[in-house]
Amino acid sequence: MLENVVLTSKKTRKKPLLDDRKIPQKEQITVHKAKVEDVEQIYRVACSVGTALKDPYKGFLIDDYLSDPDYYKEMFAKAAQELDHFYVAKKNDAVVGFLMAYPKEKLLEVDPLWLEEIVWDPDFDHESKTKNFALVGKTAIHANLTGKGIGSSLYARLIRDLKAQGIEDLFGETVISPTPNFASLAFRIKQKYSLAGIRYVNYKGRRVTDLIYHRHI
Fold first, then answer.
1. What is the pTM (predicted TM-score) of this model?
2. CA-CA distances (angstroms) from residue 107 to 67, 85, 100, 172, 185?
């Protein structure tokens, strides 16, 4: 699972996907389980940070969501139906961010080789830390609304739910090649993750290198 946390291309700026000026700043961020009816707005958030242009300092999703709308909307709809840990952050009923996470059993259903592909840090006790864990698959905040605590709100809900299930180990991935995601690296530091390993994977015809981070929750 490639985790990604944006610039929209010039072609998409003619009609903003979401104008943060229309969202009352006094409105509290609320976090909910994603529903199929949220898919259109989830897709718009993904498009704002997942285009062919990758800005390492503002963060990005690895895919180009503008390239195949039907495919990605179907993917999000399926995830909303099947994932227990797929959340949306809303302001004034508008989706402004989302987070998808996979407990170990679900992760290995969709990515059976994930654990085997990691080169673990020799000082990291991966055998005990991977007995019962969850992996954050995707985190995206609308490009116009980063730095407002939305990502932290999503993570707080995820951690609360994982703890209720007895899961205390959380992993995340950050892309460092072919384009380093510096914004994601900064978020890992903010969330007090520690480096656990590195993973090399061929993704859509290119080699992608991910740093694997761990956090005890």
1. 0.84
2. 25, 12, 11, 12, 22
